[in-house]
Amino acid sequence: MFSSLRFLKWRIGHPQRDRLRRDVISWIATRPDDPELQEVAAFLEKNAPTYLPYDFACAQQDNPVHVELDRATGLPVIDHGGKRLYWREGRKTKRIPRDYNALLAEQDPRSPHRYLTGNFDIAPGDVLVDAGSAEGILTLDVIDRVGHAYLFEADPRWTRALEATFAPWKDKVTIVPKYVGDETRDDMVRLDDYFGPERRIDFLKLDVEGWESRVLEGAREMLTSGRVARAAVCAYHYPQDEEQLSALLRDMGFDVETSDRYMLLYRDEGLAPPYLRRGLLRATRPERAERAERA
After folding, report:
1. CB neighbourhood size of 240 (10 A)
2. How distant, in Å, are the alpha carbons of 30, 37, 116, 119 from that of 135?
3. Which of 8, 72, 130, 152 sits at a 20 to 30 Å CA gap from 138?
């Protein structure tokens, strides 16, 4: 959070972003009955725009993070809840605490980007598909209880870090160094092709930089046949994502809910009303949920 003096200096030094900040506040003022929007406006009255425009996210930025260099791999590594989380090579050490704290803010229980909730979780023995895994923090958080995890990550800098992070659990982790999409080629795979006609998935997480619709289309047979129980799908990369991805998932037979609160993609060129986007869609296959409740 900004002090009054720091905030004033920021406003003077960043006139375009300050104009966006004021425009968002003005737009929210026309919708006084939405308490979630009012929470964003209260934040922006005293702070610069940020992806998660909430006090809890800003407070996370100041948490101390110790980064060390692992001699065996040559990779940066940090302690994450008693587990070693390796970082991609080439990232400046001084940047890693900021990156890590941003991840923690994203998965705060109050965050619009949080994947798991009390009613939307990964159960013991579940099969997890983490598409667009990057550093793999979601999988690491649940690694002790999953039956098997498949991590799809095409960036070789991250795949090397993932191999180091999940070495203690290599018997139940498969790292796939490919993009996921709507076609299968040398560097990309459709989930329908990778898993075939029989494999059942308990939890599918998609954070693939705007390719979510293509990944869903590439998994259409799995999704429509009921072989995927739950899917956490990021819906903030493009303005139309929430509407289009929700419609696609419902067409495939899922019940869909949005996460609470909003994200502000303030760096997007030409950002226009409604400015704010929901972070995540939580999709549940009704018949799989009913069977789980009976069990």
Report:
1. 11
2. 40, 31, 17, 25
3. 72
Per the structure block, which two tokens stand in for 291?
Answer: 């069977």
Rounded Cα distance, 39 and 263, in Å: 12
d(CA 104, CA 231): 21
Where are the chain's structural domains?
Answer: 4-49, 123-294
CB of 136 closer than 8 Å to CB of 151: yes
130, β-bridge pairs: 151, 205
Q: What is the pLDDT of residues 196-227, one digit of tens each?
A: 999 999 999 999 999 999 999 999 999 999 99
Asked if residues 113 and 263 have their Cβ atoms less than 8 Å apart, the reply is yes
Q: What is the CATH class of 123-294? A: alpha beta
C-alpha to C-alpha distance for 54 and 57, rounded to whole angstroms? 6
Q: What is the pTM of this model?
A: 0.93
| Cα torsion through 219, 155, 150, 69, rounded to 10 | -160
